[in-house]
Amino acid sequence: MATDKELNDFLENVERRAFKQAVYAVRKDEAALDIVQDAMIKLAEKYGDKPPAELPMLFQRILQNTILDYFRREKVRNTWISLFSGFGRKDEGDEDFDILNTYEAEEGSAAAESSMDQVERAQTLRLIEAEIQKLPTRQREAFLMRYWQDMDVAETALAMGCSEGSVKTHCSRATHALADALRAKGIKL
């Protein structure tokens, strides 16, 4: 069971990396701050009693789900805004007016992507997650800590209870295995 101090220390250490990950995903600083805060609150409320070793994986999953929730809310919000913003714009003689033809998504937002791009990205992410789950435990831990949680080699070695050389070996093997598996599935790296 994680003590309050262990939970606080974990959240303090992961805060910057989580913010950077959220900013990369949503491209808005304010939204990223809200996402990280929500993820931290969810971890503390629902999983604060878990062992400290489980916190990084739990937090990563909570953060990813919170980011997905943000995109779902934005999609609904943008749909309603676009539907209602067209009222009163219809010209008297324009009977073929269609609100969907006038809607323009904000550049760089998820709504600006084509449906095909969104589906392809979601499928690729599912494939990557599935391949990561197939990795041996130590390789998966090292890979996720180093590349998804942006921990340096020393932090990862300390968290895993092994040498820095072992972390490098596990990460190298994991990246090669993932690259081979994804190439075999037709994903270009």
Describe the protein's architecture and organization:
By secondary structure, the chain is an all-alpha fold. It folds into 2 domains: 98 residues, Rna Polymerase Sigma Factor, Chain: A; 77 residues, Arc Repressor Mutant, subunit A, CATH 1.10.10. The protein contains 8 helices and no strands. Helix 1 packs antiparallel against helix 2. It is flat, with a radius of gyration of 21 Å. 19% of the residues are buried.
Brief rundown of the structure:
With 189 residues, the protein is mainly alpha-helical.
Keywords:
189 residues; mainly alpha; Rna Polymerase Sigma Factor, Chain: A; Arc Repressor Mutant, subunit A
Q: What is the total tally of β strands?
A: 0
Structural class comes to mainly alpha
Q: What level of helicity do the residues show? A: over 70%
Report the span from N to C terminus: 40 Å
Low-confidence stretches: none
Rg (CA only): 21 Å
List the helices and strands and how they pair.
Blueprint (H helix, E strand, L loop, with lengths): L3 H23 L2 H19 L7 H31 L13 H4 L12 H20 L2 H12 L4 H8 L3 H21 L5
Helix pairs in contact: 1-2, 1-3, 2-3, 5-8, 6-7, 6-8, 7-8
